[in-house]
Amino acid sequence: MSEPIRFFYRGEVRSVDAGAPTRTLLQHLREDLHCTGTKEGCAEGDCGACTVVVAELQPDGEVAMKSVNSCIQFVPTLDGKAVFTIEDLKQADGKMHPVQEALVECHGSQCGFCTPGFAMSLWSLYLKQEGQAKPPCRKTVDETLSGNLCRCTGYRPIIDAARRMGELPHVSFDREALKATLQSIQRTEMYSYTHDGQTFHAPRTLAELAALRAAKPTATIVAGSTDVGLWVTKQMRNLGDMIYVRQVRELYRMEEEDGMLYIGAAVSLNDAYEAVCKHYKEELHEMWQRFASQPIRNTGTLGGSVANGSPIGDSAPWMIALDAEIVIRSDKGQRSMLLEKFYLDYMKKDWLPGEFVEAVRIPLPRKDVHFRTYKLAKRYDQDISAVCAAYAFTLKDGVVSDAHIAYGGMAATSRRAPLAEAAVNGKRWDEATLKLAMAELAKDYTPLSDMRATASYRMKTAQNLLRRYWLETNPDSAQPLQSINAFHYAEGAVTA
Amino acid sequence: MNSKSEPFLTQAVPMAWAEVGKPHPHESAVLHVLGEATYTDDIPEAAGTLHAALGISAKAHANILSMNFDAVKAMPGVVAVFTHKDIPGTNDCGPIIHDDPILSEGLVEYVGQPVFIVVADSHDNARRAVKKAVIEYEELPAILTPQAARDAKSFVVPPMHLARGDAQAAFERSRHKLKGSLHVGGQEQFYLEGQISYAIPKEGKGMLIHCSTQHPTEMQHVVAHALHRHSHDIVVECRRMGGGFGGKESQSALWAACAAISAAHLRRPVKLRADRDDDMMVTGKRHCFYYEYEMGYGDDGRIVAAKVEMVTRAGFSADLSAPVATRAVCHFDNAYYLGDVDIRAMAGKTNTQSNTAFRGFGGPQGAIAIEYIVDEIARNLGMDSLDVRKINFYGRNDEEGRNVTQYNQKVVDNVIHELVAQLEDESGYRRRREEINAFNAQSKVLKRGLALTPVKFGIAFNVTHFNQAGALVHVYTDGSVLVNHGGTEMGQGINTKVCQVVAHELGIDLAMVRASATDTSKVANTSATAASTGADLNGKAAQDAANTIRKRLAEFAAKRHDSDPATVRFEGNFVHVGENAIPFAELVQKAYMARIQLWSDGFYATPGLHWDPKTMSGNPFSYYAYGASVSEVVVDTLTGEWKLLKADALYDAGNSLNPAIDVGQVEGAFIQGMGWLTTEELWWNAAGKLMTHAPSTYKIPGVSDCPENFNVRLFKNRNVMDSIHRSKAVGEPPLLLPFSVFLAIRDACSSVGDHRYNPPLRAPATSEAILDAISAVQAAAEAAN
Questions:
Q1: What is the pTM assigned to this prediction?
Q2: Which chain A residues are within 8 Å of B55, Cβ to Cβ?
Q3: Are strands B50-56 and B270-273 parallel, antiparallel or unpaired?
Q4: What residue in B sits closest to A493 (Cα-Cα)?
Q5: Where in chain B are the domains?
Q6: Which residue among B193, B732, B768, B782 is the active-site one?
Q7: A437-473: per-residue pLDDT in tens?
Q8: Is B732 considered catalytic here?
Q9: Fold classified for B414-459+623-785
Q10: Least CB–CB distance from A381: residue in B2, B128, B702
Q11: Which residue range forms the structural domain that includes residue A41?
């Protein structure tokens, strides 16, 4: 049975019962509600002009408020949530919010088209910074705004506004009232929304999900819709029936078990990386920051990223290098396998109809395993890598064993480099071994040329990144990252 | 505030009371941040509004054999399909040469060329339906690169040639010679608001078009021709754009025409909003350039002979390629006197998007070549490139000589010597050069680089007659003022500046002056808001209009108080006549009762301009804007990754009308120019399809690309020309400032060969281009050992 979609927006709980389940929040805001403050710049979650803040109850009962790209969020995914747009920032007395005032003071808008999106990202930071006396550091500002493009200002005045907003008279936000509202619109049973023969299902339990998946093996599974959204807005694909997994509480499970970190498939990329970085801060923090953008990481999931299995994904190489596992479920039960075995060929994966990703399991740090991952792209923020490399060698007394070398962007899937691995296993991790392995990489991969890089650049940097790894980890003269990585060097130079 | 940019505390204008010179926020800033600023797509839609989408060519060069729209028409919500046969008037949207069909007539000349229009009940339905057309093509050979166009002698306009003296002879005589080549890529404008037009039929033959455009008058003309109507039937309005950068100068016409053609047929309002991918596939970009050069110079680095041949990728039609190439020719000197000169420029006809205006309009492409060359001269002579730059600067006066450009305009406002000296000193250039050398000597993987580059940029349209503007100023009886002018607001703050000028003239607060939407039914026959001239031209025209009203009010007030009109002062919302201070609004009310005209038009035509396109000489520019910047980078020699560590820029905005806006323009242009030269890469596949057609694949700078250490300052100066309040233009020239970023990267690349070899660094300097340049230097160094 189809029921209207219920969500809170601009002071009221709304029931929406119109349009395809793939209608985007942006379309709904602009075309149905005539709230035109939120803009469309790209309709693919890359420019941030459409940024809004979505509030939802977390499994722990608290309210999470996060920046989201409304251009690729389907309206039914908002059921039980609250949406805040630029129209919400103005105070009841008509005054601007400090975020807005700071933007004006700092001359943070020129053409103004990107401004509402920036304001909403900044507001999400404002909420997070509540109670903190110090203005956010540059790194935090960059993270917050990594999904917002501005073509006019060059960003400097917007960065200033991010630092300035906290200095203006504070405007508080009533989270408790929002929590009560959100609690009032939670459902107890599986939610379905049907329009024109197309149904959107939001199961609430793993069992429901498994049964539904078995019944509808061709339905499209949707989590953050950071990729699936584009199938609709760009490829104009018909998704058929949809199964939304982010209402399944069990899929938010995150815990350590048997030396592995279990991360449920509905956990957002930000939450997943935060958890992983508790164990691998040095190794993965940069990847976390550079993985897509803040709003994409807020809705996108590690499970979805793995299930999608793009050849250029940024997570697969390091997960493969660490021997991470994928947990697959169906109504018949659960099975696990090494992630590297899951990817068979270009966009081809080892699973059967009715199966879906339940979780990934990431090994915790092990003694003597030296793990690193590096990403090469045209831009630091929100870019898809040309080459993504990950290495995990066991080093004892300077000798390599159990070498794991994995790359993205070098083949039809993210995969390991068996010849290069063979060249280093059992050898002293010296420059001669490195050179041998670098030469073997040329036999391991035959990369392609495309708009991101040529085949020769891919090969050359794949080899050179192995050298960077060697510079960082070799037993004789290991060097700190800031002396061999431009971004790390720059960070040091700014603080110095 | 952690920013070290201009604090805007000083009052630049030596007057007791002034509205110009103050760092007022953008007139729409509050609306922007509230989300209440109305862009074309935000205008409440009239009842019955339909939505259009464009069907585009899938082939780079082909004859269309057949088109079948049955499946299109069967899609939900589809109302109509139009082809070129449905155009009542002229099927052309070319701004100068009429080689630019609105819809293909059977020949398609690039992947993305519009072929048909689908009109449906929603934007989404139109987009879905458009994909269902079945088009049969007969493919033809395609030309995709500028070099291929040159070799095939395929040009959109005849090649250009500018010569001074005998460059060949001077080259042969010169003590040192160098030869080389360079490729500099194009750039997508990437205005955040895509192309959009909303056409609403009015009574009779009337048509109102809300269009995101820098050139409402040209939109009016193109639509009138396409609909076979008079100009007076067509009204084009633009309140603001979400960015333009040149991309909405001529190329908004296609969208305006298609919306209008559809609306005219259906007698219903039709909106055409481009999806981002369509926008990038259909519209032209900054021209890429390929250069081959031969330079002769002396032991001190002074250039005596400059020969360059440049060929651009014009795309399939002329569009603005001729004036873009002209500006490139006129900016190959940048800030330098080049001795005997021979410059050839060709606009290659290619089977790609028709390239168009983009901030700088060929100027950046002309100037980057000479900066690249000067860099090589310095390296060849073992000199610091700043010293080679200095010795080649234009002379300051007739005694110094060397003060005439290759196109025969005398440089009479040269401040580059003192501007660069100030920046060199304040940025610690020499000290940092030594520090960097020391760092590079001990750092194996990371190398730092430094460069200081100057800018001299000519202000005015090269085509003399475009240098005119009109304005209307209305003073209402409550003392509030409305100004309308021919310029368009794309974020650059023209309305803020024009309002400041009007407020200043009438002695009232800025808050009392409002600018209304640009509208072809108010000010007629306007020029594009382009060539950085917006505030110069429209500011002067608005000042003229306000001044006429002021004079009338002064005369009226003087008469009433038996005083001399020349002594009447307008200040601080009061009109001072002798001992009397009358509130402005009160005087206005009295003047109205006395039947004094309280509104006026104003007009301005820039004096002293002339240009002979045949000889490529004359006085095309009213004055020059100057600037310079220093950039320091760190480069990873294993991957080609890099990071801008620090940037200092000094810009000559003359007597700035609004220093906050001007600094904003400089910073924005700097980052945008840096994007052009580094991360922004346009990439076509072998079949001629642009594969970087969305922000997922085309990377403009993001927030972390803005250096933490970014210091932009305005150089204290006054325009020697009688420009509006002696200010200088600021739109385009600062886009050339980040040449220093590109050349700092090249400097870092060069350090791997002890600065003995010239790194062949192409632009954009992506990590791949940087690594290629490093590899070439390493190979040269190895070969020499």
A1: 0.97
A2: none
A3: parallel
A4: B645
A5: 29-37+468-605, 47-141+193-274, 414-459+623-785
A6: B732
A7: 999 999 999 999 999 999 999 999 999 999 999 999 9
A8: yes
A9: Aldehyde Oxidoreductase; domain 4 (3.30.365)
A10: B702
A11: 5-88+176-244
